[in-house]
Amino acid sequence: MSERRTVSAGELAVEELLDRLESGERVVVRTEFLGSEHQVTLRYDGSTFYCDTPTRLHRHESREAMRTCLENQGYASQ
After folding, report:
1. Rounded distance between C-alpha atoms, residue 74 and residue 18, angstroms
2. pTM given for the model
3. How far is the C-alpha of 59 from the C-alpha of 36, rounded, in Å?
4. Whole-angstrom distance, CA of residue 33 vs CA of residue 43
5. Which of 3, 16, 25, 34 has its CA 20 to 30 A from that of 43?
6. Strand, coil or helix: what is 34?
């Protein structure tokens, strides 16, 4: 089973977060949306990156696509 780490949104830099995912770590990001705390689980299965939000599962086929998602959603710091 992969290691799991919980962080606050923006706590890790984009490259650090991507490296952790590619090494097999799952990262749970705590984020606030409309006054409520939510958790987003980020993972990588060796070919696809996943962002499992409370409402949907996003899939990204490349490191660059995942980087864009992490930056746009505020999950990682610049």
Report:
1. 14
2. 0.89
3. 24
4. 21
5. 34
6. coil
The pLDDT of residue 25 is: 96
pLDDT digits (tens, 9 = 90+) for 18-74: 999 999 999 999 998 778 889 999 999 999 999 998 888 999 999 999 999 999 999
Residues 6+ apart with CB under 8 A from 31: 8, 9, 37, 38, 39, 40, 73, 74, 75
Residue 2 is predicted with a pLDDT of: 62
57: enclosing H helix or E strand: strand 57-60
